[in-house]
Amino acid sequence: MKKKKIIVFLGLVTTLVLAGCSSKSQTAEETENKAQVETASVGEEEREETPKEPIQIATKPMTEQYILGEMLKVLIEEKTDYQVEVTKGIGGGTSNIHPAMEKGDFDLYPEYTSSGWVLVLGHEAGEVPDDEILVKLQEEYEEKFGMTWIGLYGFNNTYAVAVRKEVADEHGLTSCSDLAKVSQQLVFGGNGDYIEREDGFLALCNAYGMNFKEVKDIDIGLKYQALDNKDIDVTNAFTTDAQLSKDTIVPLLDDLAFQVNYYCSTVVRQDTLEEYPGLGDVLMLMDGLLSDQEVAELNYQVEVDGREEQEVAKEFLSSKGVL
User: Fold this and answer.
1) Among the residues of the chain, which ranges form H helices?
2) Can you list the domains of the chain with their CATH numbers?
3) Torsion of CA 26, 27, 31, 36, to 10 degrees
4) CA 199/CA 191 separation, integer angstroms
5) 239 DSSP 8-state letter
6) Please, are residues 48 and 36 in contact by the beta-carbon 8 Å criterion?
7) Which site among 36, 116, 130, 246 is 20 to 30 Å from 184 CA-CA?
8) CB of 79 within 8 A of CB of 282?
9) Distance (Å, rounded) from C-alpha 286 to C-alpha 95?
10) Among the listed residues 37, 294, 301, 305, the one whose alpha carbon sits nearest the alpha carbon of residue 157
């Protein structure tokens, strides 16, 4: 009987010891597993918190591009957690920015439809209707360069013909066809390269039948001063020139659609859109945002009033309700 009790007692002790060992082993395993999970979790958090490289934006050497670059920067930084760096005024414009985009030096930049179509893709200007060119650009850029175009800002920075307001009022001028009828009474003044290039002054005169009393070669920076001084009556311009926001100068309607259009958009690398989720949606906020007149006014604020591009850009975006 005692022997049986001893055997039972030893069995109970053995069971308790084994249970204790099992409990310790299970606790140690749970602790190790928990530590591994916590370590993995910390690793994931660190990876998520590791900041991405700043998005690189390039701009051409012109005032409106500086303003557009700041608009893109403000929108991206306000709407996302991404940081942005802007490189202002790349010399050579498209001819140098596009190769840098291909190499990955830049992620995006503001570009003009006909510049991409002619300078980058090598097509003839004006061979695609305006309502089709964006899709064509997207298709070819995606296929050839791994890039795309996002949205159209709304304005068209193309060539224009401008006259003094008093000349427009005196002759009732609103279009280039109107100007052609009285051109023999007026003096045209333009910068040398525009007067000499085949698709410039001579092509304009041939298209509209213009025959000016006199043609003067005027430095590009002095054209508007020459207009104000009444040294000339008519000049070539760009539709977003700062001076065209003044009431004293009137841009004339290109009623024969002679000029090739240069609508502005954002060119961006496809891999940048993949790396920075939501970026494409932010870039689309620029779609239809700006008119020719508004860009001219913004240029005037910077060039004439001496305001900072970033200040002008942010104020405009706020006025449009996109910030």
Assistant:
1) 2-49, 63-79, 94-103, 113-115, 130-145, 165-171, 176-182, 192-196, 201-208, 223-228, 270-275, 279-283, 292-303, 309-319
2) 55-156+262-319 (3.40.190.10), 161-252 (3.40.190.120)
3) 0
4) 14
5) T
6) no
7) 246
8) yes
9) 24
10) 294
Q: Which residue has the tokens 């958090």?
A: 45
> Is there a contact between 188 and 201 (Cβ–Cβ < 8 Å)?
yes
Residue 39 to residue 82: CA distance in whole angstroms:
27
- How many other C-beta atoms can be found within 10 angstroms of the C-beta atom of residue 153? 22
| pLDDT above 90: percentage of residues in the chain | 76
Give the model confidence (pLDDT) of 161-217 as tens digits: 999 999 999 999 999 999 999 999 999 999 887 888 777 899 999 999 999 999 999
Q: Which residue has the tokens 């003009």?
A: 112
State in Å, rounded, how far the first CA of the chain is from the last one. 92
What is the per-residue pLDDT for 17?
A: 40
300 membership: H or E segment, kind and range: helix 292-303
Query: Which residue do the tokens 């092509």 mark?
Result: 203
Q: Report how far residue 216's alpha carbon sits from residue 125's, in angstroms, rounded to the nearest whole number.
A: 27
User: What pTM did the predictor assign?
Assistant: 0.78
Which tokens is 288 given?
């239809």
Closest listed residue to residue 298, CA positions, set 289, 287, 309, 288: 309
The per-residue pLDDT of the chain, averaged, comes to 87
- The 10 Å Cβ neighbour count of residue 115 is 20
